[in-house]
Every structure is written in structure tokens, then in C-alpha cells.
Amino acid sequence: MKVRIFGFLHSQDKDRDAARLIVAGAAELGRHTAGPDVGCMVLADPDGNVFCGAGAITASPWWR
């Protein structure tokens, strides 16, 4: 049974951290941008579970 969960990771350097995840077995599925400083990279782990990696958040997130 496949786990239906979507993970979202934040990083100060999403390209560097995505490269590390790809070396560890993740696959890049796509990139989405909404401006020069806003975007995310969609990845999947070796089992096909999808997650997103985003760059640094400059504004205070709502959950703080």
C-alpha cells in the first residue's frame, strides 16, 4: 500500500540540497517558480513518494 502523504522541505540552498537528495536516490520530477525568489523543486524518493523542496523563507511563516 502506497503512503499518501506530501512532504515539503525548506532549505537555505535548495539546489545544493536537492543535488544531495538525488545522489541519495531521489528523482527530480519538476520545478515551479512564481517569481525570482519564489519556487520549489518537486522530487520523489526511490519508493515514489513525492515531496517538494523550497528555498529560504524571507517572511515569517504563519506557524511561528
Which short descriptors sum up this protein?
64 residues; alpha+beta; Signal recognition particle alu RNA binding heterodimer, srp9/1; 4-stranded mixed β-sheet; globular; disordered C terminus
Give a short summary of the structure.
With 64 residues, the chain is an alpha+beta fold. It has one helix at 14-23, and strands at 7-10, 27-35, 38-44, 50-54. The protein has one helix and four strands, in the order βαβββ.
Task: Walk me through what this model shows.
With 64 residues, the protein is an alpha+beta fold. The chain has a single domain (7-54), classed as Signal recognition particle alu RNA binding heterodimer, srp9/1, CATH 3.30.720. It is 16% helix and 39% strand. It contains one helix and four strands; from the N terminus they run E-H-E-E-E. The protein has one helix at residues 14-23; strands at residues 7-10, 27-35, 38-44, 50-54. It has a four-stranded mixed β-sheet, covered by helices on one side. It is globular. The model is unreliable at 57-64 (pLDDT under 50).
How do the strands line up in the largest sheet? 1-4-3-2
At CATH level 2, the architecture is: 2-Layer Sandwich
What structural category arises from helix and sheet content? alpha+beta
What is the rounded distance between the termini? 34 Å
Q: In what range is the share of β-strand residues? A: 35-45%
Q: Uncertain runs with pLDDT below 50, 5 residues or more?
A: 57-64
User: What is the strand tally?
Assistant: 4
The coarse overall form would be globular
Count of discrete alpha- or pi-helical segments spanning 4 or more residues: 1
Look at the structure and give the mean pLDDT. 75
Element string (H = helix, E = strand)? EHEEE
Pfam family, one: Glyoxalase_6
Domain Glyoxalase-like: 9-52
InterPro entries: Glyas_Bleomycin-R_OHBP_Dase, Glyoxalase_6
Protein name: Glyoxalase-like domain-containing protein
